[in-house]
Specification:
Length: 186
């Protein structure tokens, strides 16, 4: 699935970092996307992600308009097929189907690689992200009341609730994710 307009979805690489960082900062400043108070360094960001599941949407000038990335939820072998994702869209590109295109592509790639569960914890007040996840088949499975205080944005210092979403996948026949850790890891 490609986004509308002249945007293309490509694999996320460190060369996209300036655009990723800019959009991540927008999410931090808005106060509805993350508990982070500062954008991490590129190396730290990339180190925690599944390389084959990071995607960016770029315009005709190769400027990043949005990104999605996933990380393993645990190093334990039993959870090797469970990932948590984040999706961020530049405010100038919101409402164009970009988040849907990125998340749909992540779902296809995760399933083809043998992942069986995609999850996300979304701020209760982030109605756009919650609606997106429901639209793409995620289930609302939990609620965390006052899980943490918002570090930035309009709600800085206030307790925030998060809603848990998950999407169960049927892994492609014979596929399995590259385990983060082998059997026997605690």
């Amino acid at each position: 699935m490609q986004p509308s307009g002249e945007l293309r979805v490509l694999p996320l690489t460190s060369s996209h970092w300036p655009g990723i960082k800019r959009i991540y900062q927008q999410g931090i400043d808005g106060g509805l996307a993350t508990f982070e108070s500062a954008v991490p360094e590129c190396a730290d960001f990339m180190a925690g992600k599944v390389d084959s599941l990071g995607l960016v949407a770029v315009d005709s000038a190769n400027s990043v308009a949005g990104w999605i990335a996933a990380a393993p939820v645990s190093k334990r072998w039993a959870y090797r097929g469970v990932i948590e994702h984040s999706v961020y869209i530049d405010r100038a590109h919101s409402g164009r189907g970009l988040a849907s295109a990125l998340l749909a592509e992540l779902i296809v790639r995760a399933q083809s690689q043998g992942y069986w569960m995609i999850q996300s914890a979304i701020f209760e007040g982030n109605q756009a992200s919650r609606a997106l996840h429901l639209k793409l088949g995620f289930r609302e499975v939990g609620f965390r009341e006052r899980i943490a205080q918002a570090p930035t944005g309009p709600s800085a210092g206030q307790w925030v609730n998060t809603v848990l979403y998950e999407l169960r996948l049927e892994p492609a026949s014979g596929s399995h994710p590259d385990p983060v850790a082998g059997p026997g890891t605690p």
